[in-house]
Amino acid sequence: MLLQLNNIFKWVNAGGQRTFLLKDINLTVKEGEFISIMGPSGSGKTTLLNVIGMLDGFNEGEYHFMDESVHQLKEKHRANLYKEYIGFVFQAYHLIDELTVYENIETPLLYKKFKSAERKALVADMLDRFNIVGKKDLFPEQLSGGQQQLVGIARALISKPKLILADEPTGNLNSKQGEEIMELFKQLNEEGVTILQVTHSEKNAAYGSRIIELLDGRKVSL
Amino acid sequence: MIKNYLKIAFRNLWKNKTVSAIHIIGLVTGITCCLLMILYIQHELSYDKFQENGDRIVRAIMAYGRTKDDVKKGNFTGTKVLTAMKSNFPEVEDGVRMYQEPTLVKKGEHAFNETRFLYADSAFFKMFSFPLLKGSATEALNAPYKIVLSFTTAKKYFGDKDPIGQTLRIGAGEKDYLITGIAADCPVNSQIQFDFLASFASRQAARTEPIYWSANYTTYLLLRSPGSIHSLQPKIAPFMAGEMAAEGERDIYVNYELEPYNQIHLHSPYDSFEPNTNIKYLYISGCVALLILVIACFTYVNISTARSLERAREVGMRKVTGAYRNQIFWQFIGESALLTAFAIVLSIGITLLLLPAFNDLIGKSLSPSGILHPGILSGMLVILVSISFLAGSYPAFVLSGFKSVKVLKGAFHRSAAGTWFKGSLIVFQFVISTFLIIATMVMQSQLHYIRNKKLGYDRDHVLVLPMDNKIKDKLDFIKKEWKQNPNILAVSMAGELPTHIRGGYSLWGNTTPYEQSIMVGGNVIDEEYLRANGLQLIAGQDLTEQDVRDASHGNDKDNYFHFILNESALATLGWGPDEAIEKKMFLGGRTGEIKGIVRDFHFASLHTPIQPLVLFPENWGAHLIVKTSGRHLPETLAFLEKKWQQTASHRPFEYRFMDDAFSKLYTGEMRIGKILSIFSAITILLACLGLFGLSAYTIRQRTKEIGIRKVLGAPVTGIVHLLSIYFIKLVGVAFLIASPLAWWAMYNWLLDFAYRIEIQWWMFAVTALGAVIITLVTVSFQSVKAALLNPVKTLKTD
């Protein structure tokens, strides 16, 4: 078991009313799974992903990640945990505009204090693997959306995470580019990386081994 | 890691070149101005610090008058005060009498008119720390007709030859002086400046029986200990009362006030051999420098903060990829430190480049090495650290603390507190700018007023030439010869110029007792003085050549004087103009009668009201005043030079304009006026830069709003209006705060002048209008651009 959510609630108070973003979510993810989270806009998909990614907190419930009780951890511990084991892929890529492809991929290693030689080797591997060696000195704005997302995934993978959280990774891409990215995810999954993706597309969801459907913050059983 | 930070810092700067340039230029300007001012202030404060005995030397200020409560004061004394003090007070170890006089120096056939020519007693080199390169400190000036040259002067006259033992021919009397020493050049920050230092014993006055009167000399005393001034001062008044009684002076009060040598340059109202600087103007300069620095820093912090908002996404992303908060903190602080350090280095470079021009502007010679002063260097460090932290603090503290999810979404935009904070920075900057604009305007108006005020005399096209006994002997001939030129209207010999008459006398009528005499300013003139200076006679007659001859018998018994009084003297005596004419009067020891009344004119600076004045002939003078028509001036000068060489060949032909003598009265005011004008222009520029940078960002943050408004049908003008009104409001608030402050400050400054302008309402109106226009122009650069953008583009980005 990689992670487990027990009775997770998250809400905001607006205008004296409590609006639930997540309501009684129970979820167990095993290592090596490829899960797609689906649901209409506003159903809480991204919120759920952020909670799992520890970027966002929750109000009630228990969250266990690799034998750690996340809900009891201090902010700093939690941050260490996600930095160690989780990689993020965003719909809008979120690359740093002022850094080149190479430097963008390198950034997480810098924060993990890898030695220069090690960093070089790791980034070179990654560039090679994604076939973007020729683009390493380009800036994000000089790349197509698909290529940017490739860089985004490469950056997420560079620190060898156990879990990849992808928030509509193909949302900004055309269908061909999207397909390539999904194939890549599939391949990564086969190599042992656990993947949780949020998607709107039935077709992309089908790449996963399991689908979770959300509606108004609630898990809908299929 | 650091390389990565550097890269991103540099690329960020490069991406927004305009804003980056504004960003750095602002800070560089601020620091440069501040550095220049500090150098100036440092220079002024360093005056005389090199004097090892500085804390034991005092200058005697003579206070004299009818009673203790009605005294005049001056920095000149008679020759006796030194000897009297030395022999009567154990506190006084030694002393020096000094005298400065522009003097003719001849070596062989070559003659030079030397202005930095001083006489001093033999203790000079013992008292003062002017090192002698050659010669003996005790013997160099211990007898008449000995002279010490400065190093540069020795080079000028003798080149590489050894001047010791040679002679120079000094003065119109052409006495040979033996060169006994070479002194190192005087430091520029010394109140005593000389090229020549002749033994005081050479002067007639030193040899004749010492007297307290004829106050022409500066007396410095060397005390046994710095504290003796306090025990010595109270003893002088009773001692002098005894001395006066012994000399049989009726009811004359004389006292000497001791001024510590180190305080003279900045605190004394009486100039030394080099003009003093009013400490008040140093305070003003310091404040202005500090304000500029503060403005520059605020602008810098303001723009930095605004710029960092753009980097929010980067911060979020860095956190997601594993950055700790303190790593982001140091990234931004480091980036800001790097930029600040760059700005500081650039400022130092520019300061050094600008220093010569700045020296010209303020008429000083500041040395670039002053920048190495530990105070300045540590100041730089303080600036570096504080600006780095202030400018980097917003991204470092606030952004780095945000939740990455929020920052990535860009949900942190515009907190109310942040807007309020930046708004108040802008207000503060404009308060300072408006204050300085108003101050500059008032100062310039006052200086303009001084320059153009009808002073009662005419200083246009008036030349001033030196005068000595040789020339005086030929005066009648000179006058006749020169006036053959139709452009030379009058030639007058006089003791002092009408710009600044310093002499003081007592005047009383022959029917009133001496006790009712009045203190008057006095000046020796001749029959052409009124004409040469355009003075206006309102009653009686001008002097004639006969009147001058009547007063030129050489002893007071045979002399009969004709006096010309000014209106103030008349008012003080309580007489009407016609009533006064031909009244018999005494002026000191001179007997005579009133011959004419002249309209009041300003014979001192406008800081003081017009005092009573007597003009009288006495057959001597220090200046030749030549009134020209102003037409064909070059030809007239050539004519004068030719005539000069024929009749006064012993002296080089050197002239100056009376207007320059007049300007000298206001050196301090003009310097501060210039500095203020330039600096207020710079603060306005800086404030504009700040406004420009800030508006750019405020508007960028509102692009979405602008897009939506445009889709909803808002016209371009409406949007520009919307964006400008916020800034106009800020500037308005600033104006309301600054106006009363400026009024109060300038009102007090003007109180220093006996004759001054009124602060006018239009000065404020012009400032307000100017501020609004500047704001509009600055903001509209950005707002018009934003308003013209296609909303499709702006709305797509989110």
TrEMBL record, chain A:
Q: Which Gene3D superfamilies match?
A: P-loop containing nucleotide triphosphate hydrolases (3.40.50.300)
Which is an annotated GO molecular function term of this record?
A: ATP binding
The record's similarity note reads: Belongs to the ABC transporter superfamily. Macrolide exporter (TC 3.A.1.122) family.
Please provide the record's keywords in A-Z order. ATP-binding, Nucleotide-binding, Translocase, Transport
Q: Which Pfam families match?
A: ABC_tran (PF00005)
Tell me what this protein is called. ABC transporter ATP-binding protein
Start and end of every ABC transporter domain? 3-222
Q: Does the record's keyword annotation contain Transport?
A: yes
Pull one GO CC term from this UniProt entry. membrane protein complex
TrEMBL record, chain B:
Q: Where in the cell is it found?
A: Cell membrane
What keywords is this UniProt entry annotated with? Answer: Cell membrane, Membrane, Transmembrane, Transmembrane helix
Annotated ranges, domain MacB-like periplasmic core:
20-236
Under the heading InterPro entries, the entry gives: ABC3_permease_C, MacB_PCD, Macrolide_Exporter_MacB
Cellular component per GO?
A: plasma membrane
Give the residue spans that cross the bilayer.
Answer: 21-41, 281-303, 328-355, 375-399, 420-443, 675-699, 711-739, 759-781
Major site of localization recorded for this protein: membrane
As one GO molecular function, the record gives: transmembrane transporter activity
Q: How does it sit in the membrane?
A: Multi-pass membrane protein
- The molecule here is called ABC transporter permease
User: What's the source species for this entry?
Assistant: Sinomicrobium pectinilyticum
* The organism's taxonomic lineage, starting at the top: Bacteria, Pseudomonadati, Bacteroidota, Flavobacteriia, Flavobacteriales
